């Protein structure tokens, strides 16, 4: 059955986590946020929107058995890991670490400007994978008023397994990430993935105007699929259930650009 369920910004957990971190959580992050039992959606496990003060960040820590990817919104972060990767990530970059059997990494704000990023965790399609690291860069033009495919499963058409390459960032999971920067009064659409069963997607409007834990503000979009529609502002998310190939339409109702992420969460 086609439906869209709004998840308002005010329902996200988190806030001022430390003196250097502002974090908003969509799914449960125990013990800080239990999300009324909302632990995942399809293969998605975590969507955290983080703001890290300059010269601060997450020191070396361990991960195992997850696909971890970062969408940079503003500023820079310095990534280091136990696979000897050292990289400065900036606006337009997508970095993915396939933690597999285990890695250690750190993410620290680089330079004098605070960093703003969205970090996503997804369950892989099997256990005990070999750890891998990938980065990709996407221009503003690639996302302007159209959906750009940023992350897609390894083995999909156009997906390279080079550490740094063209096309979508490869992921060892049945998840894809699309992004757009939608101008005022513009409408874009895309069809739900082909399948013989119901499809699921998750939408998140990036909170580009600044940190806000209260009612959403800023960019304003309308999302429609079938005879269902919701209006979303910055910080709001939405769960989408629809038939295969059903058209999802999004219109920018506001007077500023809207940066939106769309996750296909069950491509298997």
From TrEMBL:
Residue ranges of every copy of the Pirin N-terminal domain listed in the record: 16-121
InterPro entries: Pirin, Pirin_N_dom, Quercetinase_C, RmlC-like_jellyroll, RmlC_Cupin_sf
Signal peptide (from-to): none
Pfam families documented for this protein: Pirin, Pirin_C_2
Coiled coil: none
Domain Quercetin 2,3-dioxygenase C-terminal cupin: 164-265
Annotated family: Belongs to the pirin family.
Name the UniProt record assigns to this protein: Pirin domain-containing protein
